[in-house]
Design goal:
It is a single chain. The protein is of the alpha/beta class. It has 10 helices and 16 strands. Helix 1 packs across helix 2, helix 2 packs across helix 4 and helix 3 runs parallel beside helix 4. The termini are far apart.
Length: 392
């Protein structure tokens, strides 16, 4: 494809043609429009996402689920850049795009429209279609080839009257829904009974769902279990590589993609999320939160059970009034004054041998959220003894 605009040099026209044929190249060329001043940082996982998205536009993949950690480029690729690229091949495509918050879906609509209206895009591809003036709003815009893009929120009642050739959900659940079964199950019901029926053509239409996991029974879990119907391609990208369950995807055309990492714990995008950052995320979210949000496992691979290998030791340096810890981040000294104490009590009132134990634990919690067991009483005690023990 050679652009019809004389303002482009021959080399620019050739490059524009290459970008039209290759979504990965298009991303690199258009990046400066959606992220001005922020350089594009390549990553093999971004190439993998681009490869799967291009397969959706080319009709090879009809159902695509992508699970990946936050801030790893999912919205830029899946909710923004793929849309204008798709119109270079079929400007009549109609997109319906949702997120758990309408402002997020609208944000991506605006970014997408900004690309199309940019001088860079118009100089190269402006002859392919034109945005209409009578439907050019931030929540919905159309072109002169009958294609459009509309933003909606997950669970919105107004979704019932809308449809699309490509349906995209970017983050169906906010993280808070991991604690609310009612709200999360309402999203599942909406996905199964409303959203999944919005395709204009079931045979040729495509659906894309992307987000991090929050619960075993979230939209991703529904798809993985097969309850959503159809043959879904699942691109699973954990922050740390798990050798026991490497991701491998099978395209309907016969192409196979597999995670290129080989070492246990190898990082997904070390240039942007190096080891110190990932370790910090572990401390912030805890083992269960990190397993879901960053490893895409709502329950850790080994289960939610205390493991002997996780037990570590500490000592108290009376001279410096500090705790000396052996941690995954190395040997650490933490002043006692920087910690706060926590008491944990499990009451039991029977002294019979077979009865449950009375347990009273005292913990010190460090600024890094390490839990140090300072004292533990584990015994069968009468109620008066329990009271005196607690008041000590």
């Amino acid at each position: 494809m050679l652009a019809t605009y004389p303002s482009l040099s021959l080399s620019e026209q050739i490059q524009a043609g290459k970008a039209r044929d290759n979504f990965t190249l298009f991303v690199k060329e258009a990046w400066h429009i959606i992220e001005p001043g922020t350089p594009f940082v390549p990553g093999w996982h971004l190439d993998a996402i681009a490869e799967h998205l291009q397969a959706v536009i080319e009709g090879d993949i009809k159902r695509l689920l992508v699970n990946m950690p936050p801030r790893h480029g999912k919205s830029s690729f899946i909710s923004t850049l793929i849309h204008p690229w798709s119109w270079l091949h079929n400007p009549s495509l109609r997109w319906l795009c949702a997120s758990y918050a309408l402002n997020l879906a609208t944000r991506d609509n605006l970014k997408c429209r900004r690309i199309i209206k940019s001088r860079w895009f118009q100089a190269r591809y402006g002859h392919l279609f034109v945005l209409t003036k009578d439907q050019d709003a931030k929540m919905k815009f159309e072109n002169d080839k009958s294609g459009y893009r509309q933003a909606v929120s997950v669970g919105a009642a107004g979704t019932t009257g809308e449809g699309g050739d490509i349906l995209v959900i970017d983050d169906p659940h906010p993280i808070e829904q991991k604690r609310s079964d009612m709200k999360r199950e309402a999203v599942l019901d909406w996905f199964l009974n409303t959203w999944s029926s919005r395709l204009n053509d079931e045979a040729s239409g495509a659906m894309i769902v992307v987000g991090q996991r929050i619960h075993t029974q979230d939209v991703s879990g529904l798809i993985i279990e097969g309850a959503a119907g159809g043959e879904w391609v699942h691109l699973n990208l954990p922050a740390e590589y798990e050798a026991g369950s490497p991701c491998r995807t099978y395209f309907p055309s016969g192409k196979v993609w597999e995670d290129p990492r080989t070492e246990e714990g190898e990082l997904l995008w070390e240039e942007r999320f190096p080891r110190p950052v990932i370790e910090q995320k572990k401390r912030i979210h805890g083992p269960l939160g990190f397993a879901a949000i960053y490893q895409q496992r709502p329950v850790p691979a080994g289960g939610n059970i205390y493991k002997e290998k996780d037990r570590r030791f500490f000592t108290i340096d009376q001279a410096t009034q500090s705790y000396l810890l052996e941690t995954p981040r190395g040997r650490v000294t933490v002043p006692i004054a920087d910690c706060w104490n926590l008491g944990v009590i499990d009451l039991a009132t029977s002294t019979q041998t077979k009865a449950d134990y009375f347990v009273f634990e005292t913990w010190a919690i460090t600024p890094f959220k390490d839990g140090l067991l300072l004292d533990c009483i584990h015994d069968h005690l009468e109620f008066p003894e329990q009271q005196s023990t607690i008041s000590l």
